[in-house]
Write a structure and sequence with these properties.
Structural class: mainly alpha
CATH topology of the largest domain: Multidrug-efflux Transporter Regulator, Chain: A, Domain 2
CATH class of the largest domain: Mainly Alpha
Distance between the termini: 63 Å
Number of domains: 2
Strand content: 5-15%
Helix content: 55-70%
Length: 134
């Protein structure tokens, strides 16, 4: 399967492709997550392959529950180090490990809640069937 070349796209097209709003992209630019981008005629935003990959990375991190503050830390490290991905790897691993622990904690709490609900249901069914508490 051949991969088509990625030509620069305008903000509206990029937003449409990624299923987000242009305001979201602009906001990420305003807070410094997107780095610098090219503009045509002084106002039209154009996004190249690296910009698109960066935005996809931001969206992936957001989908995994990573905060904008944490993404900003990664972005700062990335930009300070000439956009060398390996420089953010240790911080990224630490952030992901933290989120894995949070998810594991939520799963444990939900599992406990499920058990409580099942046990309560059993007690109610016993009460209904036998006319007395279990």
């Amino acid at each position: 399967m051949t991969r088509k070349a990625t030509k620069p796209v305008q903000i509206g097209e990029l937003a449409r492709q990624l299923g987000i709003t242009t305001r979201t992209i602009r906001y990420y630019e305003e807070i410094g997550l997107m780095g610098k981008n090219d503009r045509l005629g002084g106002s039209t935003r154009m996004y190249n392959k690296d910009d698109i990959l960066r935005l996809k990375f931001i969206l992936k991190m957001k989908a995994m529950g990573v905060s904008l503050k944490e993404i900003q830390e990664l972005s700062d490290i990335f930009d300070i180090n000439d956009q060398d991905f390996t420089t953010i790897t240790p911080k990224l691993i630490a952030i992901l490990d933290h989120h894995i622990a949070k998810v594991d904690d939520k799963i444990a709490k939900l599992s406990s809640l499920r058990n409580d609900i099942v046990n309560y249901r059993v007690r109610i069914m016993d009460l209904l069937e036998n006319g007395k508490p279990a």
